[in-house]
């Protein structure tokens, strides 16, 4: 296995590194640069090689049999992180939300082969889903490498880049929307008289079981909803309230707003 370099050692990069280590990737072949000494301490505890300076990490990667570079910084600091860097002749995989391949190409040397990915936070527990788009200069080997690295976070799907902002709005921001709904479900249980710890346990397991049914039965969500909606029963009574409040439409608007924000970030 060749070396992999990470520019940025935050939570998502750390999750990816832990996944690679669990798959048997040698810690000494993982190089990570991050300006935060606390992050470097955390990374050092994983026995990978931490660097304070991005260019120093890239120089060291260039001396080795490198496989690629992962760009894992916040969108607000992309320009600062990439300014003036010299890259080895390796693919660069970006997991920066909102940044298009074209926008990244303007910040990177002309010969760099760029891939863009959008993971989501369940990747922190190995249960994520990541969408991947390869730039025009990338070959099949570059895409296979990116799929291997991203596979450490969970499932990987290949999408055309024109859909990446929509992916960001749905699966990138989706966990936040689901946690919001779960919080409301828990609070509803408390309102109905349940102790909060019990309401949380019931809500979390109900959500987990519902998702498992959706995955294993391969039914449309509406069909599964019908299974629990008896005539004149409790579920239909609650659904009437949700429909009256326009909850479905608001969730759709939330996804669209998040997708539009992703497009705005990458401009």
Please write out the topology.
Blueprint: E1 3-7, H1 11-22, E2 30-33, H2 37-44, E3 49-51, H3 54-63, E4 66-71, H4 78-82, E5 92-94, H5 101-105, E6 114-118, E7 128-134, H6 140-150, E8 154-158, H7 164-172, H8 174-191, H9 196-217, H10 221-227, H11 234-244, H12 247-265
Parallel strand pairs: 1-2, 1-4, 2-3, 4-5, 5-6, 7-8
Antiparallel strand pairs: 6-7
Helix pairs in contact: 7-12, 8-9
Write structural notes for this entry.
By secondary structure, this protein is an alpha/beta fold. The chain has two domains: 3-164, Rossmann fold (3-Layer(aba) Sandwich), CATH 3.40.50.720; 174-265, ProC C-terminal domain-like fold. The chain is 51% helix and 14% strand. It has helices at 11-22, 37-44, 54-63, 78-82, 101-105, 140-150, 164-172, 174-191, 196-217, 221-227, 234-244, 247-265, and strands at 3-7, 30-33, 49-51, 66-71, 92-94, 114-118, 128-134, 154-158. Strands 3-2-1-4-5-6-7-8 form an eight-stranded mixed beta sheet, with helices on both faces. Helix 1 links the parallel strand 1 and strand 2 (30-33). The mean pLDDT is 94.
Alpha carbon gap, first and last residue: 36 Å
> Secondary-structure element order, as H and E?
EHEHEHEHEHEEHEHHHHHH
Taking the sheet with the most strands, its summary is: 8 strands, mixed
What percent strand? 5-15%
Q: So how many helices? A: 12
Amount of helix: 40-55%
Q: Which term fits the overall shape? A: elongated
Low-confidence stretches: none
For the largest sheet, list the strands in their spatial order: 3-2-1-4-5-6-7-8
What top-tier CATH class of the largest domain fits best?
Alpha Beta
- What Rg is obtained from the alpha carbons, in whole angstroms? 21 Å
What is the residue-mean pLDDT, rounded to a whole number? Answer: 94
CATH architecture assignment name of the largest domain:
3-Layer(aba) Sandwich
CATH topology of the largest domain: Rossmann fold
Structural class: alpha/beta
What's the number of extended β-strand segments?
Answer: 8
Number of domains: 2
Q: Give the CATH superfamily of the largest domain.
A: NAD(P)-binding Rossmann-like Domain
């Amino acid at each position: 296995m060749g070396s992999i370099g990470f520019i940025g050692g935050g939570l998502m990069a750390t999750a990816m590194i832990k996944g690679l280590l669990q798959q048997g990737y040698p810690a000494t072949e993982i190089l990570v640069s991050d300006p935060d000494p606390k992050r470097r301490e955390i990374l050092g505890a994983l026995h990978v090689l931490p660097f304070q300076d991005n260019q120093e990490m890239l120089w060291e990667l260039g001396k080795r049999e490198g496989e690629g570079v992962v760009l894992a910084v916040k969108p607000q600091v992309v320009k600062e992180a990439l300014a003036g860097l010299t890259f080895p002749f390796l693919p660069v995989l970006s997991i920066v939300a909102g940044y298009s391949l074209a926008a990244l190409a303007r910040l990177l040397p002309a010969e760099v082969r760029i891939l863009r990915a959008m993971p989501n936070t369940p990747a922190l527990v190995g249960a994520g889903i990541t969408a991947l788009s390869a730039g025009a200069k990338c070959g099949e080997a570059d895409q296979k490498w990116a799929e291997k690295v991203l596979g450490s976070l969970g499932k990987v799907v290949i999408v055309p880049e024109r859909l990446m902002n929509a992916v960001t709005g749905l699966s990138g921001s989706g966990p936040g929307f689901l946690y919001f709904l779960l919080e409301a479900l828990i609070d509803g249980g408390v309102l109905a008289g349940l102790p909060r710890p019990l309401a949380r346990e019931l809500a979390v397991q109900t959500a987990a079981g519902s998702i498992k049914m959706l995955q294993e039965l391969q039914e449309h969500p509406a069909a599964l909803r019908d299974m629990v909606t008896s005539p004149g029963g409790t579920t239909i009574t609650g659904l009437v309230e949700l429909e009256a409040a326009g909850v479905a439409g608001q969730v759709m608007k939330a996804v669209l707003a998040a997708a539009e924000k992703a497009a705005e970030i990458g401009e």
